[in-house]
Each structure stands twice: as structure tokens, then as C-alpha cells.
């Protein structure tokens, strides 16, 4: 019996720690999307590690340079000055948070954007280390 109690305590501590990390990741995810909608790109990127990897088909190859990502978002805002995201679902799973959302906006030429997107954020030590974004742009 005395061996079972420390084992149960370890399991309980691990469970609580996992739940706390999950909640921190969910909170960071919410802040990332709030910053996106406010077009506060530096604030949004503050939730990413300095060596985070960005995977997006429109980028060609994975990008591991926050300055490139910052410029990309600034350029996106210039083209769609009202760009925003509407969160549909958030699924935490271990160190990952899977987000379904729709990106909307109107281009400078008046074209409407209504693009369903799925992003998988991978967290380590409270920061995003991988951002993989998937969508059909056709």
C-alpha cells in the first residue's frame, strides 16, 4: 500500500502539470489570434520562440526567421487592411493546439477573402516552436 501512494501522487502531479500546460497553450493561442485581429504583429510573434519554424504552402519552404514572418504579415495587412480571423474550433492535444478558423477581409482591389484554414501550433516551454498552416487557396 505504501508503494501505491507515491505512485498515485506522481500520476496526479503529472496530470495536473499536463493540464496546466494545456491551459497555458490554449491561453497563448487565444492571445495570438487576438493580436492577429488587432494587427499587432510583433505582439503576436512574441508568443513564438526565436527559432520557431513556420510551414505554409504559400511560403514554399519552411521559414525559420521571425523577421520574414513579421514582414509577411505586414504585407498581408497592406493588401487586406481589414484582415481578421474568426475562430471556429480549438483542439488541444498534448503539446499541440489545432485551430480551425476562417480568414476574411477585402483586398485593395475590392476582392473578398473568405478562406477556411487549419493551423497546428506546437508548444515547448510556453512558446510556439512550430506553426503549420493548411488551406486550399483555389
TrEMBL record:
Signal peptide boundaries: 1-19
Keywords, sorted A to Z: Signal
Pfam families: SnoaL_2 (PF12680)
Entry keyword annotation includes Signal: yes
Domain SnoaL-like, chain residue ranges per copy: 31-130
InterPro entries tied to this protein: NTF2-like_dom_sf, SnoaL-like
Protein name: Nuclear transport factor 2 family protein
